[in-house]
Each structure stands twice: as C-alpha cells, then as structure tokens.
Amino acid sequence: MTWIMIKKEAREAWRSRRFLILLIVFLIFGLMNPLMAKLTPEIMKMSFGKQFSVPTPTSLDSWTQFYKNNSQIGIYLLAIIFGGTVSGEVNRGTLVNLVTKGLPRRTVIVSKWLVITAEWVLVALVSFLVTWGYTAYYFPDQKSPHLWLAFLPLLLFGCSLTALIVLASTLARNSYEGLFMVIGYTVILYLLSLFADFKHYNPLSLIDHNLTFLTKTGSLTPYWPALLVTGALGVLALLLANLKFARKQL
C-alpha cells in the first residue's frame, strides 16, 4: 500500500510540475553560484569605478552563494510548493476513496514525506554537483576541501523541514496557513540563535556554519546536539502529523 501511495505522489508531483519547477530553480542556482562569484568583482568595478578595490574571488565565494541560495530561498520555496500537500487533498476530497478502501492513514503521511524529501534531496544534490563542477572550473584552488562535510548538515535540516511541512499542512486548512506555520518555525529558530547557549542545539546552526565545515576550521563534533535535535524534531513532526491526520475529518 505504501509503494502504491508513493507512486501516486510521485506521479502527481510530476504532472503538477512541482518537481520540474524545483529542479529548474535549483539547477539555475547551481549555474549561477560560481558565475556570480566570478562576475561580482567586475560588476563592483563597473558600478563604483576601477579605483574600487575588490578581493580576488575564490571557491569560498561560490560556495557562499550556494548556501545562501539554498538556506534563504530554496528551503522557503519547498514550503511554498508543498504547503498544501495534505490540506489541499483534504479540501478536494481526493483521499476519501483511498481511505475508505482500506488505505491506512499513516501511509498517506509517510508517503507524502518520503516523496517530498526525495525531491528535496535530488534537487539539492543536482545544485550541489553543478556548483561543484563549475566552481572547480572557475576556481581551481584548495580552499574548499570538505565539500560533503558541509553539505550533509544542509540535507539533514531539509529532511527535518519536509516533515514539519507535512505537519503544518496537516494542521492547516489551506496552503497559506501551512506556509505561515513553517515561517513561524524558522522565526523561532532565528530568535533562539540570538542566545549563545542554544548555538550548538539550534537546528539553524546546520545551515549557518556550512563554510566553517567546508574549510574545517571547525568540525561537526560540537554540533552533534543540533544534529540530534534536528533529527528528533523531524521524527516528532511526523508522529504528530500521523496523530492529527488519524483524527481529521475527510
């Protein structure tokens, strides 16, 4: 039953062009990250004159663009596109026949999370690999030695966030409410980041210190609490989504 639901969700993601939109946007990110790093000095000189001193760009500038785009735009794009993944189907009544024919309600939640997470991982990986290739071409230096160490925390944060998106959509009446719940969650994390004592526990630290992981001027070891909290929040969000959906009137 789970596999059937997964195929149904994947087919819907393709037919609705949600996955295609994500793929195109993240592919553009991958192409633009190193290009913007390469062109920024020239743009600055054209804007402020040749006397304006700009440091020579490096691979770190390209990866700075990558993590900025993924954490500030890409993650919110996920929330916008999938904010109505549950509430939309409840409002349209498309799940009634499936549930009345014996489809376990938990299968609906788990399948939606698996498909959304798979889409996120795939488009993020495409963007990462394209950025990696063009960065190596434009900036053949050795200043970004630990690419995967920096990328994996971003992936984990995104996988946890997709669980929260499913929970928000289950609680919400429409996609707008779901989006606002996700934004509220990130605002709370940003407020907690103002307190130094919460730094190594805050899931947001996984997308705020990627350049530190990239150069290994710091390691992941101090951030194990944040990794565990992020994973725990993702599991908790899925459990709560299942509990809520089990009681939801379809």
TrEMBL record:
The record's listing under InterPro entries reads: MFS_trans_sf (IPR036259)
Transmembrane recorded as keyword: yes
Origin species: Lapidilactobacillus achengensis
Name assigned to this protein:
ABC transporter permease
For this UniProt record, give its keywords in alphabetical order, as a comma-separated list: Membrane, Transmembrane, Transmembrane helix
Q: Which residues cross the membrane?
A: 73-92, 113-135, 147-167, 179-196, 223-243
**Is Transmembrane one of the keywords?**
yes
